[in-house]
Amino acid sequence: MPNIHRYIGQLAAVLLLLIAPLAAAPAFEAGDLERLWQTGKCLGCDLRGIDLAKISLQRSTIGAGGLGVLDLSGADLRGSQLRQAQLSRATLRRTDFSGAVLDEADLRRADLREANLAGASLVLVNLSAARLDDANLTGAAMGQARLDGTRLNGAVLAGVDLRRAILTRASLNGADLAGARLPGAFLSDTDLYGAKLDRADLSDADLSTASGLTQAQLDHACGNLKTRLPPWLTVQPCD
């Protein structure tokens, strides 16, 4: 135990050096960060603007006797730098990631229900089997994101960039994809029942085995000759 406590102290010192430029910002609460590293839980914490890009937030950071599953439910992480962050299986319900950078982050099986990811950068992120039901991803950049088996039921993805994203077996039941860009996206066995596709760009996308897709939905979307659809459906060309 003393070794673990000493390691936590050393880690906290490194973190304080990394966030020194933010010390004057009234939004950041140093006590919240300490609580996070001591318990692995920080519900409702204010961590706006913190740079955690190269810091692991998983149990492995402290070792087998350290943190359990990370819980940042309701935390404020607006504008935070979380590139390549290790957040698999983390509980992040209603967490505010708006404007945050999460490129190449590992969020497999994370619980992001009702999270706010509006305007966030999620390029090459791994969200396989994650739960994002009712999440807000308006205007997010998600090029080449992995969303295998991801739940996005009722999520808002208006204007999201999903170029070449993989959404195999993802569930988008009732999701809002108005104005979304999906050129080259792969939606094999994806559930699109009740999804809103108004002005969605499906150029080069593969929806040939998507379920719940109707002509009424596609009448409001656009694509090109390389858009793959079930044989009984068609889509108008994009301008």
Overview of the structural elements:
By secondary structure, this protein is largely without helices or strands. It is 13% helix and 0% strand. The protein is built from three helices and no strands.
Please state the average pLDDT score.
83
The proportion of residues forming helix, as a percent range, comes to 10-25%
C-alpha geometry: elongated
Number of distinct beta strands = 0
Structural class: little secondary structure
Beta-strand content estimate: under 5%
Gyration radius (Cα, Å) is: 20 Å
Largest sheet: none
Distance between the ends: 64 Å
Uncertain segments are: 7-26, 53-68
Q: Count every helix, treating DSSP H or I runs of 4 or more residues as helices.
A: 3
Tell me the series of helices and strands, N- to C-terminal: HHH
List keywords for this structure.
13% helix; single chain; little secondary structure; 239 residues
